[in-house]
TrEMBL record:
Glycerol binds at R83, E84, Y135, D245, Q246. One of its GO terms (cellular component) is cytosol. The gene is glpK. The keyword Transferase applies. ADP binds at T13, R17, T267, G310, G411, N415. GO terms for molecular function: ATP binding; glycerol kinase activity. This is Glycerol kinase. It comes from Aliicoccus persicus. Belongs to the FGGY kinase family. InterPro entries: ATPase_NBD, Carb_kinase_FGGY, Carb_kinase_FGGY_CS, FGGY_C, FGGY_N, Glycerol_kin. Residues 262-450 form the Carbohydrate kinase FGGY C-terminal domain. Sn-glycerol 3-phosphate binds at T13, R83, E84, Y135, D245. It comes from the Bacteria. SUPFAM superfamilies: Actin-like ATPase domain (SSF53067). ATP binds at T13, T14, S15, T267, G310, Q314, G411.
Length: 496
């Protein structure tokens, strides 16, 4: 094989990465660039789409340069992305008409309140598997069309295009040839019907969003188009795999069978369970989403999305200046034998699954004169584990199945204190992947399978290994007492 590698762009909330994988799923090179976060008003989070685009060009060339790799040695490109984040741009000039509104942003709460007041909750839930929340793309589109002068008329005249980050990047990489997304990303927009597998006309009318804005929806593993050669050393590299980052991680962890569960610890936490070919409706605050579409088969997932986990550690680092590197949180937490009664509820942008409370804000409980900063650090890490327990309990109820083990990945899964506490508080074994970049790996698999770089999903099974398994060491009484303390803290936070 002359083409030795698959390249992946992982465009995440805090950074853009280009990663090269070889045929044994090993990482050959990584190049990364941070993305600036813009906070234009309270609760609003935005990115500059041009900065995102230029970071992609920079990391793609950077990863080749770092390892002195010939562009001809790359077989295909996979793209995985922060989901829901919304870009609208001019079809002719390619200029975004507004900053990208990021998934975390709460600036469309009033649009959501209106949709709820108009009684659309059940219909939206039934068709999209989601619930009305600023998290999803539709109200972000409404906001941009309403806040940029002339945008609505231009949209109605077919002059504008909408995309999540995958769509924006494919459009830029193909110099406007491809305006497409895959089903996993479409299923996060609040506009896509996850049963009929098409943009839903009735919902578009409710939102007053013109259909001409929307991209074509494809599978997650096929050749969507080719990079314009002048952007990539004269090579028309096929773009062959696309998936939202959490679904890509599910695939990268090879959670290919019904009942398989993974939990990613990044800016937020996202637990997904593969529910097979049937969408499972949640009665416990989870959402239903498309897990993948490959080999002509759509699979679904139940998802619990927690908005603030790793970003609470960033807050300890940058806001409170408790340490200079996220890794140091582990050392501080381990210095203490317990949380000394301290609970931190990091509801900085409201609470996601299973509470869905946009109005909630962060709180701290149980402070005494004896509280040390290490207790606060420990309580913040514990909060990540408690929130995960909230979601896992909901998942067990919704899927009517027991979960005995959890595959984990993402930046904060490096934290040994957190992983042990997670196993303790769930009473489930926690298995950390040997390759922590499972999100990118999933997109590599999707792209590699489409171009025959890997022959089949079965060929991948021997490639994925567990680095470490954490088993519970906590007795039931302590586990129950700690978790009850957390539930009390959440209740008090919501009542505030
Ligand atoms: N050792 C650690 N302990 C706790 N949190 C960590 C650790 N390392 C990274 N993090 C947190 O994980 C997040 C980064 O993870 P990553 O998977 O790169 O996120 P994303 O894909 O959301 O940008 C940051 O929010 C950071 O604070
Ligand atoms: O960029 P991440 O890894 O924080 O993921 C964000 C999610 O896709 C939001 O739904």
């Amino acid at each position: 094989m002359t083409e030795k590698y698959i390249m992946v762009i992982d465009q995440g909330t805090t950074s853009t990465r280009a990663i090269l994988f070889d045929n044994n799923s090993q990482i050959i090179g990584i190049n990364q660039k941070e993305i600036e976060q813009h906070f234009p008003e309270s609760g609003a989070v935005e990115h500059n789409p041009i900065e995102i685009w230029s970071s992609v060009l920079s990391v793609m060339t950077g990863v080749l340069a770092d390892k002195n790799i010939d562009p001809l040695a790359v077989a295909a490109l996979g793209i995985t992305n922060q989901r829901e984040t919304t870009v609208i741009w001019d079809k002719k000039t390619g200029q975004p008409i507004h900053n990208a509104i990021v998934w975390q942003s709460r600036q469309t709460e009033s649009y959501c309140a209106q949709l709820r007041a108009d009684g659309h909750d059940a219909l939206i839930r039934e068709k999209t598997g989601l619930l009305i929340d600023p998290y999803f793309s539709a109200t972000k589109v409404q906001y941009i069309l309403d806040h940029v002068e002339g945008a609505r008329t231009r949209a109605e005249n077919g002059e504008l295009l909408f995309g999540t980050i995958d769509t924006w990047l494919m459009w830029k990489l193909t110099e406007g040839e491809v305006h497409a997304t895959d089903m996993t990303n479409a299923s996060r927009t609040l506009m896509y019907n996850i049963h009929t597998l098409e943009w839903d006309k009735e919902l578009l009318e409710i939102y007053n969003i013109p259909a001409s804005l929307l991209p074509e929806v494809s599978t997650s593993s096929e050749v969507y188009g080719h990079i314009a050669p002048q952007l990539f050393f004269g090579r028309a590299l096929p773009i062959a795999g696309v998936a939202g980052d959490q679904q890509a991680a599910l695939f990268g962890q090879l959670c290919l069978n019904k009942g398989d569960v993974k939990n990613t610890y990044g800016t937020g936490n996202f637990m997904l369970m593969n529910t097979g070919e049937t969408p499972v409706k949640s009665n416990n605050g989870l959402i239903t989403t498309i897990a993948c579409n490959i080999d002509g088969q759509v699979t679904y997932a139940l998802e619990g999305s927690i908005f603030v986990t790793g970003s609470a550690v960033q807050w300890l680092r940058d806001g409170l200046r408790f340490f200079s590197d996220a890794h140091m949180s582990e050392e501080y937490a381990m210095k203490m034998t317990d949380n000394n009664g301290v609970y931190v509820v990091p509801a900085f942008t409201g609470l996601g699954a299973p509470y869905w409370d946009s109005e909630a804000r962060g709180a701290m409980f149980g402070l005494t004169r004896g509280t040390d900063k290490a207790h606060i650090i420990r309580a913040t890490l514990e909060a990540i584990a408690y929130q995960t327990r909230d979601v896992l309990d909901a998942m067990v109820k919704d899927a009517s199945t027991d979960i005995r083990s959890l595959k984990v990945d993402g930046g904060a899964s490096d934290n040994a204190f957190l992983m042990q506490f997670q196993a303790d508080i769930l009473d489930v074994s926690v298995k950390r992947a040997a390759i922590n970049e499972t999100t990118a790996l999933g997109a590599a698999y999707l792209a590699g399978l489409a171009v025959g770089y890997w022959s089949s999903k079965d060929a991948l099974l021997s490639n994925v290994k567990v680095a470490k398994t954490y088993n519970s060491r906590m007795n039931k009484e302590i586990r129950d007492e700690l978790y009850q303390g957390w539930k009390k803290a959440v209740k008090a936070t919501q009542a505030f």
